[in-house]
Design goal:
Blueprint: H1 2-21, H2 49-56, H3 62-66, H4 73-85, H5 96-107
């Protein structure tokens, strides 16, 4: 399969070569800067909101987290620890308990 893909790429490039050599203007690649808007959505205020805003918003939108099912404190702890262990989330170890407590208050189940 790789040989076929490689051969097709070479063949296609060779077929385009005459057109590229006779182009009116040369094709030039250049770098550009793009400013993306900052998100103004953060987790609602309350105890531990800073911990979740500072650690979780790099990968997750507020809407995505707020639409998750209600979980127990143990389940939220498992989710946060999975993000750290499996996905290498750069969560400050001192913030883990605050994040779990916040998620439990916001989207937790009754024991």
């Amino acid at each position: 399969m790789r040989r076929l893909l490689f051969s097709a790429t070479i063949l296609f490039g060779t077929a385009l070569l005459p057109f590229m050599l006779h182009a009116d203007t040369p094709f030039v690649l250049r770098s550009v800067s793009v400013d993306l808007p900052d998100s103004d959505r953060t987790f609602p205020g309350g105890a531990s909101a800073d911990a979740i805003n500072n650690n979780c918003l790099a990968c997750h939108s507020v809407g995505m987290v707020l639409n998750q099912p209600a979980l127990s404190k143990a389940a939220w702890a498992a989710e946060v620890n999975k993000m750290i262990a499996v996905y290498k989330a750069p969560v400050d170890p001192g913030d883990v308990e605050a994040i779990v407590d916040y998620l439990t208050r916001l989207k937790g189940t009754s024991p």
